[in-house]
Amino acid sequence: MEEFVTLTYNGQEIKLPVVIGTEGEKAIDISGLRQDTGFITLDPGYANTGSCLSAITYMDGEKGILRYRGIPVEQLAENATFKETAYLLINGKLPNRDQLTRFSVMLNDNSLVHEDLKAFYQNFPRASHPMGILSSMVNALRSFYPELGTTEEEINSTMTRLLAKVRTMAAMSYKISRGHRVVYPRPDMTYCENFLNMMFDTPVKPYEINRAAVNALRVFWILHADHEQNCSTSAVRVVGSARVNLYAAISSGIAALWGPLHGGANQAVIEMLTAIQADGGDYKKAIERAKDKNDPFRLMGFGHRVYKTYDPRAKIMKKMCDELLDSLQIDDPMLDLAKELEEAACNDAYFIDHNLYPNIDFYSGIVLRAVGIPTNMFTVMFAIGRLPGWIAQWKESMDDPKWKICRPRQVYTGNLQYDFIPIHARI
C-alpha cells in the first residue's frame, strides 16, 4: 500500500509520496513540490536530503552499521582482498574464481602508464601537493586513453584502467618528487604489495615485503572503499550528471576529498599531533582546549558527521593499528603521544557525553605513518581506496534512466531590483 505525507499550507493540502528503502529507511519524495506549489525545500549542507536511490552502500550512523552491497564491512576487512571488494562494489556481487582471475589480469595489463606522463609530473612545482597533482593527472588520462566507449565491455575496461593506473600514478608522483627512479608494477605481486614496492623499492635497498604492512594497507583501502553519499562521492555524481567522461568525474572527487574536513582529516591528525609535540607534548592541555567553546582549537580525528556512536571502521582500524605497531616494534614518540591522547579522550566525560569517539581518520593516520607513508601522501592513499566506490556510484547514476543533471535551487536573499547607477553618481 502506497504511503503519503500531507503538507498543508494556507488551507491547501499536497500529498507527497513516501519512499521506503530495503532497510526501512523512509524518505519524502518532493520532486514534484515546486511544480505543484512553487515551494522548494531548504537544507544547508544537504544533511537531510536524499539525492538518489542507491543499492551500493548502507550505513546507519545511530547503530554504527556499514555494509557494501549488503555485506558487513567487518566481514570484508577480515576475509576479502581489496580487489574482491572493488569488484563487489562495481559489479554488485563478489567475483567467483574465474571472474577474479580475469579482473586481476586486467588490472595487471593496465597497470603501466604512458611514459609521456612523466613529463607532466616533472613540470609541477616542487611544493605542489600530491592531491592537486593526482586530480590533474587523472583528468589528463582522457588525452592518453580517449576510447571511453559506450558498450559494457568498453566501460568496464575504462573503470579497470583507472583502478590500475591511479595506484601506479600515486607511487610515481612520490618517486619523482624525491628525484628517485620510478619503480614499475610487477605481475607477481598483489595489488597492495605492488603499491608498497613501487613506493619504497630502490636500487640501493630493495624493498622487503612486510606482511603486517601489506595487511594494514589492505584493510585501510577496504574500509575507505565507499561511504554512501559523502562530499567527494556527491561531487562525482554531480559532475558526472553533466555526462562528462569518467576521468573528469573522478578528478572532481579527488579534489573534493582533498579538504581537511573530508579526506584530508587523516593528514590533519598527524599535523595536530606534531603541533602538540611542539608544545611540549601536553595532550591534556589539548583536550581541555578542545572542550572550550571559545577556543577555535579542535581535536582532529574525533567525532563524525554521520556516526553518533563508535565509527565501525574505527574499531577495525584500531585493532589493525595495535597489531601493526606490535609487529613493527616502532619507536616513535608521536605514535606514543597518539595512544595517550586516544586513551585520555576516550575516558573523558565530555567526549563520551558528546559522542566524540576516535574516528577512522585518527587511527588511519597512525597506521599510514607506521607503514612509512609520508604525511602529504595520506589523502592520496584515501583516494586510491575510495576509487572503487566513486566508480560504482558513477556507474549506478549513469545506468539510472531517471537520473537528471544535478541542479540545486536556492533561496535568494540579495538586493531587490534597482537601476544601474552611472559612475559619476556613485557614492
From TrEMBL:
The keyword ATP-binding does not apply. Keywords: Transferase, Tricarboxylic acid cycle. The active site is at H304, D361. GO terms for cellular component: cytoplasm. GO terms for biological process: tricarboxylic acid cycle. PANTHER family: CITRATE SYNTHASE (PTHR42871). This is Citrate synthase. It comes from Desulfosarcina ovata subsp. ovata. The lineage of its organism: Bacteria, Pseudomonadati, Thermodesulfobacteriota, Desulfobacteria, Desulfobacterales.
